Amino acid sequence: MNHRELRRTFLEFYTEREHKIVPSSSLIPKDDPSLLFTGAGMVQFKPLWAGAVELPYHRACSIQKCLRASDLEEVGKTPRHDTFFEMLGNFSFGDYFKAEAIPWAWEYLVEVVKLDKAGLFVSVFEEDDEAYEIWHKKVGLPENRIYRLGAEDNFWGPVGGGGACGPCSEIYFDLGPENGCGKETCAPGCDCDRWSEIYNIVFPQFNQLPDGTREPLKNRGIDTGMGMERLAQVSQRKKTIFSTDLFAPIVRETSKILGIEVTDDNRSMFWVAADHARALTFAITDGAIPSNEARGYVLRGILRRALLFAHRQGVREPFLYRVSGAVVELMRQWYPELAGKREQAGLIIKSEEERFLRTIEAGLERWEDVLKKHRSEGVIPGEDLFKLHDTFGFHIELVKELARNENVNLDTEGFEQAMQAQRKRSKKVISVTGTFGMGGEAVAFASPEFVGYEQDEVDTKLVHFDPLEGKLYEVYLKRTPFYTEAGGQIGDTGRIEGDDFELEVIDSYYKQGLRVCKAKLVRGEIAKGEVVAQTDKERRREIERAHTATHLLHAALRGVVGDYVKQEGSLVEPGRLRFDFAAFKPLRPEQLRQLEEMVYEQVIADKKLERKTDVPFEEAKKMGALAFFGEQYGDKVTVVNIPGFSMELCGGTHLRSTGEIGLFRIVSETGVAAGIRRIEALVGKAAFSRVAEERETLDQLKQTLGTGEDVLVQKATNLSDEVKRLDSRVRRLSTQLARTAAGELAEKAEQVSGIRAVVGHLPHFDVTELRLVADRVREILKQRYAGFIAGGTKEGRLCYIVFVSPDLKDNIPAGKLAKTVGQALGGGGGGRPDIAEGGGQADRFSSGQQAFLTALQELA
Q1: What is the Cα 698 distance to its own chain's centre?
Q2: Which candidate, 552, 450, 580, 581, places its Cα nearest to that of 508?
Q3: Separation CA 93–CA 91 (nearest Å)
Q4: Rounded CA gap, 112 and 16, in Å?
Q5: pTM of the entire structure?
């Protein structure tokens, strides 16, 4: 059966038995932090077995997209391993059990798919007599085709370390002894390629708790999994999964893209490319992007492994992004989301490929050096592994791939220690209470209560202060209206007034987990006690304009660029914001215009912001608040909602409504790192000032060019075209002058030890024009010549060029001559063996000329 028929017949078979068809869930598990990716069909049903939710149905079937990297190193080396796969599954929640599930599985394989009964064998958990009897007596399978295996083979789960689990029964297809290991013990359960496990029937009876204990499931049932790829291999009678109609079209397209035929020697590269492109395409479509954290780290490792295999076959250019297109074409009928994000996935993959290809050569050279150094020891030290990872992007899994080919071991423990040391260096430890010494006495107190969401001014108490240099102090308040720098928003400033003193607050920040104000004493003598604390209200409003605009910009970016956009960093200052985000090519002008329009729509709508504090984290996620995997949040969070447009977890301060932003103006969009873009924008008064400056510039241009605003662009375009025309004319004249000068210099060339020495000073020539002169001299003199020509002066300095004929460059390299000339000129120089250049003092040309002729004579 082709894969289309397998999909159709499986779902039809179980819907006829009252199963509800449930669509595949995302590869990124919802509300399950224990998993990086969905690795089985049962993941989305875990709450149903546990009884955590009301059952919407008692029977279900699905075709689930899955991703597992546990056998990554085997992909491409065996006929059956892959990372991305589809799992056919039928499920029971407190309904049917073994007596129905086992015969149905057999019926589907034998009666519907028409597999040869003689090739089917089964295994059961060694203690599961019930399953054994059903196979033997109800299905009629002979005892010599039923194998009892231990927990390692036939006790399944739980996924992610917790949840439903239980014994299982597996159905194998015998692919023949020619595919086996040859051992007498070879049988179902053997890890060789003979026994293809095609159907796993799990009997969830227990719920495993985080501490490892197991309790009976409230809704025991059935959880089955059947890999589409292996079923296709068996039903289509193919030797590998890569020969089936699920992979073969992708392999063919990869061959076409690379212009390389598939052979036994290079097939691993094609298998790896096809599988890894499937994994990357589906994962990115579901919202994951390659990175150095969590699931992004897995994807980056998968992509780089594919590039390593291709590099071994001489491939030096990005290609996986094109293979991704073939994946979309093959699978879009069943997963329409692929078509909608085809371009996005391709851009992300291509950007990642280009990033790694820039370092792969240097990384492989480093690996060879490390290998040569430690081969005799048989172990590569952890510190070298860490450098390969940290400097060259060679993930440990990638180095394991290289090490296997060289038969050396890796000090993975040392590598992990180095990684842990790096994490500790970058980890910011924050405490919740503080103890400070003052006058030899320890003073302990709780972190100040922040009341700045509601109040700009508050009566409070100054509970502690530490003197700094001059009249500066670090001040601790019992209740504070000053926002403490965090989350990209800078700290507040303002004033603190006591009965007999006044402090100017110049910054607010955390110190050992406590909110602290840095303040300058402007009057009186500082003392503990009752005070009035007041923020700089105008400055705070400008910061809030920028912060609220940042949320609007973030939401707009996800709409314009793609919902994979993730904040990678931000800075919120008075009237100005900087927003870093993941994207893989510059934004087009029309996209920037669209972003501004989307933000302005929300400003004009003047929507009231909603802030909810102390919201349980899980509840916030259910509300739809934007949170990212891998980031750390407390049990209680603050949710900032701009109705119908943006909802994020955020502890910063904001405006009361979007209309208070006033003006919003994007001023730049640039790249700051591989895959990271930065937008800078102005709001409020700062944006108005920028618009006023631009208005003034336009007025000056109109006055200078003597034209109106409506034809200003055309006037500037005409002037630009005229400049280009004149520049082209100047270049032609320069070429003519260079040819004339070269002829004169060549004619005056003097003999130095059998070499024609060309020397001259052309004060009106720049270095580009000097190269034209040198090229023409080459054409005239052909061989056995050397030249030193100086050009124009600027601020008492000149430029020069040194060149030699091809037949002299090995013995009389131009770069060496240039260094000698540069020293004589009081400057420097260097370059290639055939041509070099430099600069020096204009009044020392004669010294440079003499140094050139002397060096030429010595080298000749």
Answers
A1: 41
A2: 450
A3: 7
A4: 13
A5: 0.61
Q: What are phi and psi of 425, to 5 degrees?
A: -65, -35
23 with 62: CB under 8 angstroms? yes
Ramachandran angles phi, psi of 117, nearest 5°: -55, -35
The residue behind tokens 């079937």 is 61
């809030």: which residue's tokens?
544
* Cα dihedral 732, 733, 734, 737 sign: positive
CA-CA-CA-CA torsion for 106, 109, 115, 118, nearest 10 degrees? -10
Q: Which tokens go with 391?
A: 């400097």
Q: If you count DSSP H runs as helices and E runs as strands, how many of each does the chain have, helices first?
A: 24, 36
- Strand blocks (E) in 359-500: 379-380, 409-410, 433-438, 441-446, 449-450, 457-467, 472-477, 479-480, 494-497
Cα atoms found within 13 Å of the Cα of residue 558, Cβ hemisphere only? 16
Residue type, 96: Y
The answer to whether residues 420 and 451 touch, using CB atoms and an 8 Å cutoff, is: no
Give mean pLDDT in consecutive 10-residue pieces for the chain, a chain of 860 residues. Answer: 97 97 91 81 83 84 96 93 97 94 98 96 95 96 96 82 84 95 92 94 85 82 95 97 97 96 96 98 90 86 95 94 96 93 88 88 88 90 88 84 87 88 51 39 64 93 93 95 91 96 94 87 95 96 96 95 81 94 87 96 96 88 70 74 94 94 95 81 95 92 88 89 90 88 92 93 90 93 94 86 94 92 91 92 92 91
CB of 566 closer than 8 Å to CB of 558: no
Residue 487, C-beta contacts closer than 8 angstroms, at least 6 positions apart: 570, 650, 651, 652
Which residues, in sequence order, are CB contacts of 820 under 8 Å at separation 6+? 851, 852, 855
Helix, strand, coil percentages in the chain from 3-state DSSP, rounded to 5: 45, 25, 30
CA distance 482 to 453: 10
Cα–Cα distance list, 152 to 68, 69, 143 (Å): 18, 19, 21
Q: Nearest-CA neighbor of 564 among 577, 548, 581?
A: 581
526: three-class secondary structure by DSSP: coil
DSSP 173-230: EE--GGGS---TT--TT-SSSSEEEEEEEE---EEE-TTS-EEE-TT-EEEEEEEHHH
- The secondary structure of residue 487, as a DSSP letter, is T
Who contacts 166 (Cβ-Cβ below 8 Å, separation ≥6)?
A: 155, 156, 157, 202, 203, 204, 205, 206, 217, 220
Q: How far, in Å, CA of 196 to CA of 116, rounded?
A: 14
- Amino acid identity, position 46: K
CA distance 467 to 636: 35
> What would the two tokens of residue 167 be?
């014994």
d(CA 505, CA 474): 9
Q: Is the link from the previous residue into 103 a cis peptide, with omega within 30 of 0?
A: no
What sections of 38-147 are H helices per DSSP?
46-50, 98-107, 129-133
Taking the mean position of all CA atoms in its chain, how far away is CA 821? 49
245 to each of 1, 242, 283, 396, how far by Cα in Å?
10, 8, 21, 33
**Six-digit token pair at 66?**
């899955």
Q: Could you tell me how many residues make up the chain? A: 860
- Is residue 159 within 8 Å of 40, Cβ to Cβ? yes
Closest CA to 481 of 433, 527, 535: 535
| Alpha carbons 29 and 629: distance in angstroms, whole number | 10
Q: Are 99 and 60 in contact (CB under 8 A)?
A: no
Q: What value, to the nearest 5°, has the Cα angle with vertex 474 and ends 469 and 476?
A: 165
Q: What is the DSSP secondary-structure string of 347-362?
A: HHHHHHHHHHHTTHHH
